[in-house]
Each structure stands twice: as C-alpha cells, then as structure tokens.
Amino acid sequence: MSRAVHRLGKRQFDKKVEISRTDELGMLAQDFNIMIDQLFDYEQKQKQWLSDISHELRSKRSINPIFQRGVFHEIVGHLLTNR
To answer: For the chain, which has fewer Cβ within 10 Å, the N-terminal or C-terminal residue?
Structure first.
C-alpha cells in the first residue's frame, strides 16, 4: 500500500494495489484502487480541457491576441501551481 501511495504521488496511475483480503484493509485497498481510477480520469479530462481551451484561444475567430496570452498564462499558471 505504501508503494502505491508513492506511485500515486508521482502520478503513476498504471499500477493498482493487489487485493487479497476481505477485511477492512482489503476494503481500503479496493477504495484506493477506485480513487486511482478517478484521479486518472480527472487528469485526462483536465488535459483535454486545457487542449480544447488552448485551441479556442488560438483560433482566428477568438478574442484579441493580448487578451489570449493573458488568459492562457493565467489558466496554465493556475493549473501548474495546483498540481
């Protein structure tokens, strides 16, 4: 479980906790695996949202370039500081 926590801290969502128990620790491991899946989904949605908003801010139909850069840097800065 400790290794899984360290991997999760490094955003390594590919490995899950092996569940071989049915007691409270087994339930905790199961919940931990669910949390890993949810965090992975959240991160994927966040990346997609950032990609979508970046595309919109760069499009010719969008707002003026000075405002674009300011909004983009504000969003990216916020996302990077809240990791």
So the answer is: C
Q: Do 56 and 62 contact (CB within 8 A), yes or no? A: yes
Per-residue pLDDT of the chain (83 residues; tens, 9 = 90+): 888 888 888 888 888 888 888 999 999 999 999 999 999 999 999 999 988 888 777 766 655 666 666 767 777 676 667 65
Q: What is the pTM of this model?
A: 0.63
Helices in the chain by DSSP H: which ranges? Answer: 2-9, 24-58, 65-81
Q: By residue range, what is the domain housing residue 17?
A: 2-81
User: Total domain count for the chain?
Assistant: 1
CA distance 57 to 71: 8
